[in-house]
Amino acid sequence: MTVLEVDGLCADAGEHRLLHDVDLVLDRGEVLAVLGDSGAGKSTLGLALLGESAPGVALSGTVRPVSGDGRHGDDRRSRPTGRVALLPQHPGAVLDPVRRVGGVLRELAALGHDDRAARAEAVGAACEAARFDPALLRRFPHQLSGGQQQRAALAQTLVTGPAVLVLDEPTTSLDPATSAELVDRLAALRDAGTALVLLTHDEEVARALGGRALRLDRGRVVARGTVAELLGCAAPRHVPASPVPGRARLEVRGLTVADRAGRLILRGIDLDATAGEMVAVVGPSGAGKTTLGRGIAGLVDVRGTVRVDGATLPARIGRRSRPQRRAVQYVHQDPRATFLARSPVLDQVARPATLLRDLPAAAAREEAGKLLARLGVAPDVAARRPATLSGGQLQRAAVARALVARPAVLVCDEVTAALDAAHRDHLLAAIAALRHDHGTTVLLISHDLPLIERVADRTVLVADGCLRAEDPVRRASS
């Protein structure tokens, strides 16, 4: 039974066409993998399947969800409530920061259930399907780890019982075990009749779920077929690390972080890193990896000491001087939340060079533009506002913004998770150049273990708020 029909779907941001005449039909329990490089239009298509678009983007054509009795919605603006749901690339974008997770889930369950017991059953079923721990329902989103936010957002999309579930890079920032668990849950949803639209760079996830696939290139459908037909077997290319040995650059002593209830998230972390070294920070979702990075950057309240080049930094970034703010740059896991909506991306990327390096505005823009182009963000794309860029494009822009500051320490939180192999290599090459030319120390927070084996000098494992191990990374023989 058909659950979604799309005819002649186009998306335009001013004079830029983001999608060109996309047609597709989706049946009950079917999986459609949407493939393509960063900026190809995957996220724009995913949002359009809900009849929605980013600010400044206009849609044309039709998106017709089909109800259970086979009837169509009138068009993309009058779709049946709950028929199509979206799990975005960065789940924090759909979690209400001022409301507890459980309250939002119960409110959404009430859209389809009048009885309190039925609503509670729907919330429980959604949590089970998403593998979200019900003990966390009273927490606010900021009290959840990235992986927990991912599961909470999935529960939020499932509680309305959608016929079509659109997933934008669903395994981004998840550790391998959690990713495998998510794939199992998605397979169960597929088998139960939910149609899945998978927007992804993760070829292994696409292969595991199977089904049909289409490939986008600059908003055009350039290939269709099964997942097996469209995905090749070549391994992703990686850039080998080129560390520059040198003086001790980062020293962390006794770093301790507690949440508002006084529960310890990190306990007495000690960590050293030398100039030009890349240290990978690994561990399960919720272990405290992001908190460690944010604590070093001065973005959360900490106890303990952080020194860069022998100088002690104030615990909070607001108390740090300009040279101290420049010394540590942090690239967030969710780049969209870090860009101003109304300012062109190029201006925002150039700003740290002006504020922290006293570079003239014109020179800062020129340097930022060259770096963005090197990372695959074309000048016409960089001139646009953030809402019109894909998640992968914004991720590269966020890294560029940190790189132009030329920091002593660069903290990267899952910066490659939303990127295809080619753009991932460009980004890693730019970071390698900063390490070589300026001796920048890099902390790479990541779940991508094969990537870490190729680019990091060593790893530290965060588990239960402690550093459980510190081992050299085994290099690939090639």
Q: What strand line-up does the widest sheet have?
A: 5-6-7-3-8-9
Mean pLDDT: 85
Number of beta-strand segments:
19
Could you say how many structural domains there are in total? 2
Radius of gyration in whole Å, from Cα? 22 Å
What is the second-level CATH architecture of the largest domain?
3-Layer(aba) Sandwich
What is the helix content? 25-40%
In short:
By secondary structure, this protein is an alpha/beta fold. The protein is built from 15 helices and 19 strands.
Give the helices and strands, then pairings:
Layout: E1 2-13, E2 16-27, E3 31-35, H1 42-48, E4 58-65, E5 84-87, H2 101-109, H3 116-130, H4 146-158, E6 164-168, H5 176-191, E7 195-199, H6 203-209, E8 212-217, E9 220-226, H7 227-230, E10 248-258, E11 264-274, E12 278-282, H8 289-297, E13 303-308, E14 311-312, H9 322-327, E15 328-331, H10 345-357, H11 361-374, H12 379-382, H13 391-403, E16 409-413, H14 421-438, E17 441-445, H15 449-455, E18 458-463, E19 466-472
Parallel strand pairs: 3-7, 3-8, 5-6, 6-7, 12-17, 12-18, 15-16, 16-17
Antiparallel strand pairs: 1-2, 1-4, 8-9, 10-11, 10-13, 13-14, 18-19
Structural summary, described in words:
The longest helix has 18 residues, at 421-438. Helix 3 crosses helix 4. The protein is globular. It has helices at residues 42-48, 101-109, 116-130, 146-158, 176-191, 203-209, 227-230, 289-297, 322-327, 345-357, 361-374, 379-382, 391-403, 421-438, 449-455; strands spanning 2-13, 16-27, 31-35, 58-65, 84-87, 164-168, 195-199, 212-217, 220-226, 248-258, 264-274, 278-282, 303-308, 311-312, 328-331, 409-413, 441-445, 458-463, 466-472. The model is unreliable at 74-82, 233-246 and 474-478 (pLDDT under 50). The chain has 15 helices and 19 strands. The protein has two domains: 2-230, P-loop containing nucleotide triphosphate hydrolases (Rossmann fold); 248-472, P-loop containing nucleotide triphosphate hydrolases (Rossmann fold), CATH 3.40.50. A hairpin with a 2-residue loop joins strand 13 and strand 14. The strands form four sheets. It has a six-stranded mixed beta sheet with strand order 5-6-7-3-8-9, sandwiched between helices. A six-stranded mixed beta sheet has the order 15-16-17-12-18-19, sandwiched between helices. A four-stranded antiparallel beta sheet has the order 11-10-13-14, covered by helices on one side. The protein has 478 residues and is α/β, with parallel strands linked by helices.
